[in-house]
User: What shape does this take?
Amino acid sequence: MGMNNTPSGERTHIGFFGCTNAGKSSVVNAVTNQELAIVSDVAGTTTDPVLKAMELLPLGPVVIIDTPGIDDKSGLGELRIKRTKRILNKTDCAVLIVDAQRGLCESDKQMTELFKSKGIPYVIAYNKSDLAKPERALSENEIYVSAATKENINELKEKIASIAKVTESDRRLVGDLFEKEEFAVLVVPIDSAAPKGRLILPQQQVIRDLLEAGCTALVCRETELEATLKGCAKKPKMVITDSQAFGYVSKLVPDEIILTSFSILMARYKGFLEDAVKGAAAIGQLCDGDRVLISEGCTHHRQCDDIGTVKLPRWLESFTGAKLSYEFSSGTGFPEELSGYKVIIHCGGCMLNEREMLYRMSCAKDANVPMTNYGTAIAYVNGILKRTLEPFPDLQKLV
Assistant: This one.
């Protein structure tokens, strides 16, 4: 997969923050070596976070986030500051740009406290060092730079890379569950909701991870699964299916073959499978009139038999026998007020980075609302959740 094709959710997200006119956008441009941000002497030029996927050496594929000034006192400024704080939830490492002539202001200090409270590693870059460089010892995460003369810009990149690498996860999607030369059957329905001419991201990633583990991936539709299993000279170690086909597929796969789904594997990869398993139990407690939030990480054209807006509600009502109230969110939109929901059912989150998924899960926990994901919920309503967690015995105990 080339750099330009690296999905946003797999890139390190680097957020640049700072007070109005500390030269933040100029430093962003110097670091990225391109006109990513609007630069002006007028205070508050950057009005919304600007996200740009790019290659940043020595780090590799990243998303650079340029944000509005954190000290704007106008009415709009308060809204901008709120957005800036939300951006922190998808930031893997932060760069705080400070005017070297001014030093740390109150807003800067508040920002560093936010970084610490959210566990985000950060660098403080004192910009305009060509104009002023106070004689004081800097700590390991501080550096003097000049966007104007490019002084220490490469050193700043090295610092960013060193703290960002610490945040990289060694979590595997599926390859660690296999021995070399074992094989899996992947069930990929090709229906009206499937993208034309391609596989969706989790399917591509599972195939790639199996190949890297020295294993074989055999891919078929659910309609060919029975014939595929009969035609195998040796039985596959695992059948991995699109969650939507769980009901059909589970009847065809013998008990001695492990059965799970792309969505369940993705939840483990993003670090929230245990919470998703615990959250699924809330589905069994739903009653008439209860509010359910169904949330997707990406935006796409809704199909006539869309999983989020059509199939899930149908399966939930069939399982619970209750008339439920549904609300839907997609893309980067995720409700700030969650306390009214009885359960949140989220997609696999393949287009969101791990920090954003864990942020959404922590928001749900703060509001005492159980949260699960599509695959786990569909396995639960089909009565096969315990079976689909066979690769993860510790989680089976929770069902």
In short: The chain has 14 helices and 14 strands. The radius of gyration is 24 Å. The chain has a mean pLDDT of 85. Residues 75-88 form the longest helix (14 residues).
